[in-house]
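hey can u run this one w/ pantoate bound, need the C-alpha cells asap thx
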Amino acid sequence: MPNELARVVDAASLREVVSAWRSVGERVAFVPTMGNLHAGHYALIAAARSQCDRVVASVFVNPTQFGPNEDFAAYPRTLDADAAGLAAAGCDLLFSPTVNVLYPFGPEASVRVHVPGVSEGLCGDFRPGHFDGVATVVAKLFHLVQPDVAVFGRKDFQQLRVIERMVRDLGMPIEIVGVDTLREPNGLAMSSRNQYLSADERERAAEIHRTLKTMREAMGQGRARIAIETAAADRLAQAGFQVDYAAIRRADDLALPADEERAGLVALIAARLGRARLIDNLLI
Ligand code: PAF
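ok here u go:
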C-alpha cells in the first residue's frame, strides 16, 4: 500500500509540514536527489525510513553543479513518476522547488560553499566547480529541511566526503549516512545517466566494476599503486572508454596513500562511454 506522499514546492510549506512533525517529537531523515529515480534512490529512502519517523526527499536538478558543456538541459526530468515511486518507497514528503526558491538572486549571484581539500582532484579536476555547486545546494537544502539525518549513495564517493566535511566544518547538527551502491546483475552501478547508454554500451559499462575489482586484487598482491592505476586506465581505454581517471586514494580523506598502505583505501574510476560519464568505486 503506497504511503500518503505530501508534495510541496516552496520553503514556507516545507517548514510548516516539518515543524508539525518536530512539534510531536518526530525525527526527520532527508534524501536529496536530482530526480529520475531508480532502485538505488529507493534504497536510500529505505535507509532513511529505517533511521527516522519521517522521510523527506527533494527532487531538484541543480544548475550550479553542471559545467557549461554538461548535460543540465538534457538531464532526465520525470517528476510525476518520481512522486509515485517515492510514495511506494515509503517517503512522506516530496520537496521539488523551482530554481527561484533555491537561488532567489539567481544561480550566478548565489552564496557559494567551497569545501577545500576533498573537492580537489579526481572529479574536481574534470568538473571544475562541480563540488562547489553540490555543497552549495546541499547546504541550502539542509537549511530549509533541517533534517536529523541525511542519506547519500556511496557511488558518489567524493561527493559523500565533501558533504561530510561541510557538515563538520559548519557545525550542522545532521548525521550523514552513506548507503552502498546498488548494481545491475552485470555489476554496473545504478545511475540515472545509465539511460544514455545503448544496450551494447550497458554490457560494456560493466567493465568499470570488473576493473575496480582487479585494482583491489592487485593492491592485495602488493603491486605498486601507480602501475595499478595505469593498467586500469589502459584496460578501460582498450574497452572503448575515454578515461578521466582510475585512482587509488585513502578512503577517509581521498589523499594519496603512502606506498606501503594497503588498507583503508578506495579505488575510484570515472570514464566516458558514448554519451554517458560513469563513476564507480570499491573499498580496499
Ligand atoms: O547526488 C545527487 O543527486 C546530487 O549531487 C545532489 C546531492 C542531490 C545535489 O544536487
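The mean pLDDT is 97. anyway lmk if its weird
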